[in-house]
Amino acid sequence: MTQRLLGVIGDPIEHSLSPRLHKFVLRNLSLASEYEYRAFRVAPDELSDFVRRAGSQSIVGLNVTIPHKQAVLQYLDELDLGAEKIGAVNTIVFNQGKLKGYNTDGAGFVRAARTNGVALNASKVVMLGAGGAAKAVAFALAETGAAQLSIYNRSIERALELKAQLLEKTRLSTICVHRLDDRECLCDDLSRSTLLINTTSIGMHPRFSESPLVIPEALHSGLTVFDLIYNPGETELMRQAQHRGARAVNGLEMLIYQGLEALCLWLRQEEFSKLEEKISLLHLKNELNETLGVPV
Fold first, then answer.
1. Do both 58 and 154 map to the same domain?
2. Which residues does residue 148 pair with via DSSP β-bridges, in sequence order?
3. How far is C-alpha 150 from the geometric centre of its chain's CA atoms?
4. What does the mean pLDDT of the chain come to?
5. Which of 1, 64, 122, 126 is the 20 to 30 Å CA partner of 166?
6. Which helix (H) or strand (E) holds 152?
7. CA end-to-end span of the chain, whole Å?
8. In this structure, are 141 and 206 located in the same domain?
9. Does 170 lie in the same domain as 95?
10. Measuring CA to CA, which residue among 123, 83, 96, 128 is closest to residue 258?
11. Counting runs of H as helices and runs of E as strands, what totals does the chain give?
């Protein structure tokens, strides 16, 4: 029997835990003989050709990570309503020659936040970054009742674009935009915030010693820091947060939940809970942490 292919595309891709995650789940669902999951390093100038070729191969689904979540939109035949609203894709389903894009990052973020007891309703949030992951998180925050959102990004234009999308498509109206290096505004915003979310790649493997935060002294004990990075298991930003009494959460649970949501789409399993019942999330998390060298 010919195996059907699943995979993840990105650049870089060596750090990705998605192959380990999906191989674990497929094995526990007794589907390892039917599906193979691979990581594909795809440079930006190779994206068009890769997606075109993938559609003619035995690939039935792809995860999409940095830097392709927005660039890949132009090569898809159709978008799910959620992905269309967000303007970014992290999951592609191949069906009868057609490519449909979805975004499971928002659902993964919300599930991870709730698992870790992070309150989103009425939250006052500072978000670092305005890329594909940031868009999904921002829309999820709006849908779960965040009170206000301050977006900090290197490119002010990109942040303003995200603000305009949120104002047009959600009920979240208290939105501020600043440059990532605006120390004065960032210090003031953090002093009044309950949640800091890093959606940038700063601090991700192999840039272990870097932090996206220009003023770590502004962190405080009333703040939860949610770093979407999961490799390394403890980022420099998380260490800065813990040093100042703030709570720190990494992106591992978000990775797991967005991955399971994607798998539901590929397997055409409509009820997430039925898939979740068949695997041990604790064993999965332990296996991924062991890969990262995190004590379990």
1. no
2. 124
3. 19
4. 93
5. 64
6. strand 148-153
7. 37
8. yes
9. no
10. 83
11. 11, 12
Residues 121 and 235 in one domain: yes
Same domain, 43 and 124: no
The residue among 231, 250, 269 that closes a domain is: 250
Domain with 217 in it: what CATH number? 3.40.50.720
CB atoms within 10 A of CB 53: 11
Q: pTM of the full predicted structure? A: 0.93
77 and 181 in a single domain? The answer is no
Ranges of H-type helices in the chain: 18-28, 47-54, 81-86, 105-115, 132-143, 156-169, 183-191, 236-243, 252-267, 272-277, 281-292
Which amino acid makes up residue 202? I
Q: How many angstroms separate the CA atoms of 36 and 7, rounded?
A: 8
Which amino acid type is present at position 103?
A: N
Q: Are 231 and 124 contained in the same domain?
A: yes
Report which residue type is found at 26.
L
Nearest to 126 by CA among 184, 169, 176: 176
Quote the domain boundaries for residue 282: 4-103+255-292
Among 99, 92, 47, 40, residue whose Cα is nearest residue 68:
47
Q: Verify that 246 and 111 share a domain, yes or no.
A: yes
Q: Which two tokens stand for residue 75?
A: 């090569």
Query: Which pLDDT belongs to residue 272?
Result: 65
Q: How many angstroms separate the most distant Cα atoms in the chain?
A: 61
pLDDT in tens, 112-162: 999 999 999 999 999 999 998 999 999 999 999 999 999 999 999 999 999
Phi, psi torsion values for 203, nearest 5 degrees? 105, -5
State the Cα–Cα distance between residues 74 and 51, nearest whole angstrom: 10
What's the pLDDT tens digit per position in 155-210?
999 999 999 999 999 999 999 999 999 999 999 999 999 999 999 999 987 888 99
- Residues identified as active-site: 69
The encoded tokens of residue 154 equal 């290197």
Three-state DSSP at 86 gives: helix
Domain containing residue 41: CATH number = 3.40.50.10860
Closest CA to 190 of 148, 252, 136, 234: 148
